[in-house]
Amino acid sequence: MGEIALMATTGDRFSGRTALVTGGGSGIGRAVALAFAAEGARVVVAGRRPEPLKETVALIEERGGAALAAPADVSRSGDAEALVAAAVDHFGSLDVAVNNAGVFRGGVPLADLPEADWHEQLAVNVTGVHLALQAEIRRMRTQPTGGAIVTVSSNFGVHTTAPGAAAYAATKAAVTALSRGAALDHIRDGVRINVVSPGATATPMSLRAGETDADRAERARATLPLGRVSATEEIAAAVLYLASDAAASVVGTDLLVDSGASL
Ligand code: NAI
Asked: pTM for this structure?
């Protein structure tokens, strides 16, 4: 059921534009970075660990694209500004930004969650997105062509939840609210902001403790209306749509891509 028919996209929707992707060294962020590059964008690939970032850049360059690895910790004040500066210095503008970096700490009932895990999720998922939005908007509103921002939230934010995910879900609800509020504040500045809320997607983040990929596939078959998790490329396709000119009048939406989990 629901076989993945998505081919690697090619096109030129983002030719001449520069896209920044946080958390671009793995999972959804890597798929997003590759998808933008395949459609002509120059990509700044940001994240904490340099090695995976370099791998993403190499994959883009192998396919004839242009990319820059930019190590950064999005929870740190100043790092987001440095990323924006790197995009402008290397490629001349910042046209698209995807705030995808995030962490999940949970799998235990809320009462048993270590306080450090609460603070880490707040720091990366909420403060990280807040600082990134500020730095990106401050640049984009100075450009005659403005810009488009997509933040990656989760269906656990406002659409559904699961055991052991209360704190994570709270941070993702905050990501959605923050992005929608910013969308309203800055659309007249020429900066268009939207959200993609994935459900279970084929990365290690959606594996439960001790679960293999095959176990997850079985769980998805039994519990998800679609019968399978999303491919990272399917989340990337939603991100690219929202960042593209085809979505010019889509402002502050929260696009759910979750195999029907929230139904
Ligand atoms: P992932 O763990 O592969 O990607 C997260 C990326 O963020 C990693 O590359 C990591 O290095 C980076 N990162 C973490 N903390 C950072 C920091 N302080 N500064 C810079 N980079 C940092 O996992 P995945 O699945 O690709 O997740 C991407 C986004 O999608 C996250 O925001 C996650 O919450 C969200 N999401 C994922 C779902 C899934 O089932 N995989 C479902 C719903 C949402």
From this structure: 0.97
